[in-house]
Write a structure and sequence with these properties.
The chain has 3 helices and no strands. It has 65 residues and is mainly alpha-helical.
């Protein structure tokens, strides 16, 4: 799961760095890394997943067209 950016012709390093940061954020590499830094008990994972699904269900029921 490596993320890379090739610097284009006549592109500044700042611009390439901005593109790299954007691709890293979109690929969620840092989020997974931070999650793996600490152990989460399976019961807590289930609880958080249920909480997340309730939040999503509420969101979708409110924003229905």
């Amino acid at each position: 799961m490596s993320v890379g950016v090739k610097v284009r012709d006549r592109e500044s390093i700042d611009r390439a760095l901005k593109r790299f940061r954007r691709t890293v954020n979109r690929s969620r590499v840092l989020r997974e890394y931070r999650q793996n830094m600490a152990y989460t008990k399976p019961s807590e994972e289930r609880r958080l997943a249920e909480k997340r699904s309730l939040r999503n269900a509420r969101h979708y029921s409110r924003n229905r067209y």
